[in-house]
Amino acid sequence: MTDFLSFGFLQRALLTGTFLGVTCAVLAFFVVLRRMAFVGVGLSHAALGGVAAGVVSGLPPLPAAAVFTVGVAWVIGWLGDRSEISEDTAIGVFFPTAMALGVLLISLSPRYQQDLLGYLFGNILSVRAGEVLPMAAFSVVTLGLLGYWFKELLFIGVDEDAARAAGLPVTPLRYLLLTLLALTIVAAMRLVGIVLVSAFLVIPAATGQALARSLRGMMALSVTSALLSVAGGLWLSWLWDLPSGASIVLLSAALFFVAVGAGRLRS
Amino acid sequence: MTPSDSSPAIVLDDIYAAYSGRPALEGVSLEVSRGSFAALLGPNGAGKSTLLRIVLGLVEPVSGRVEVFGRPPGASDAPVGYVPQAVSLPRGFPISVAEVVLMGRYGLLGAGRRPGAEDRRRSAEALDQVQMGEYAQRRFQDLSGGQQQRVLIARALAGEPELLLLDEPTGGLDAGSRARFYALVCDLQHERGLTLLCATHDLDVVAEHADELILLDRSIRLQGPTREVLHDRMVAQGYPVPADHRHASHGHGPDHHHGDDTGPPTP
Fold this sequence. Notes:
- The structure holds two protein chains of two kinds.
- Chain A has 14 helices and no strands.
- Chain A has a single domain (2-266), classed as ABC transporter involved in vitamin B12 uptake, BtuC.
- In chain A, α10 packs across α11 (194-200), α12 (203-211) crosses α13 and α13 (215-240) packs across α14.
- Chain A is globular and about 55 Å long.
- By secondary structure, chain A is an all-alpha fold.
- By secondary structure, chain B is α/β, with parallel strands linked by helices.
- Chain B has helices at 48-56, 97-102, 117-129, 145-158, 175-192, 203-206, 226-231, 234-238; strands at 10-19, 22-32, 37-41, 63-68, 80-83, 163-167, 195-200, 212-217, 219-225.
- Chain B is globular, with a radius of gyration of 18 Å.
- The chains are: A mainly alpha, B alpha/beta.
């Protein structure tokens, strides 16, 4: 373990993973409550279109992906507000469209295909020193916003109509949640990649829910399982030379199954 | 209080509403007096829920005037409580009864403010009023449908409303449970001086308690004091109550148990 922590790139990976893991775990709480898992899947794949647009146009891929993914999230939210089209249908339209756009753009510039692999499957070990602080700042701001609006987001998640009747700003908060989800997906692409990030936005909270008897317990277990997954996944990937993103998500899934088993034994 | 204490709690004047061009309400005009219990009756698709959602400000009518305590919906100083047909949570979501009721206070708190001791005391009082105090620490989902409805009433009461809107609150409950539910609601109305507007199919049960009946089928078919309406043959002619209405199902969420007891809880 001492050897593991003696490498600078692993220290940066662990630090960045810790911040993003906690952020994903707290967001996952609302993703599970609002049954937004498919939104997470759709947005993470839509992010590919943004990355591709950035790569091909020479813009920084992450900011380009952030703008693109937030735009898609808002359109999904706007369409979801219309009774004619359900949110699921809107995602079902944008998910393949954005991915197809990404594939098309990348095919126009074959020399960038290798870059794209890094975003598809993630490589947290490549986090540079200058990236740690912005990632940490992003996590702190996101967690601060979620904490500030926690009770309102909880009420909206449980009963949106009653929350509106109580005078809560439901629509702005729905868009805030979609925006934070989109930005976290883009930020976490470095951690586990586009393909696996949506899993990290569901599994920690599902693990917490399987064991917890209270909301606080669910949140605490969600965050703990995310931190264990990041630290353990990184350590296993270093130990056995495995892909870091896949190791983190597989460990997260293993913790989920252990939690489900323990929950069943208890009941 | 709003412009005049003698003004009606609710005024709808020539309301037209539509979904995707399909009319839901046509030329609806009605007034609900302060402190009265008005029952809104009609078959499925009659526009009952639409009317409630217009009063709540959740649906914008195509035309017509809406006032709640003399002001547009959502602009009144008087808190409005809302009791939905059911609340559908993800299976196993560990929110407690006390936490659900506390949400009723969120509309009174500002953004970023956490509920304090006074909020918890008021919530506990509301829970006691619906005879569910001993269930405070139970998981909401572990309760029967009737008990959940009591908790949702407590949540609405915790917000200290002057107007309480109930949207088919007894769907799926047996006849005895429905009778006990409306008796409880009626007691609460007298204790707190509430104005009640309740959308329901339960003509036989609600008629024992309501001051006024409003028979709706996109437009108002009949409206007046309960005794007069019941003695009007139009009820039988223009507004037949289905023989099997006790068994009607109205699209409850997966966690809403059917045919259970709302009577005094037996832990």
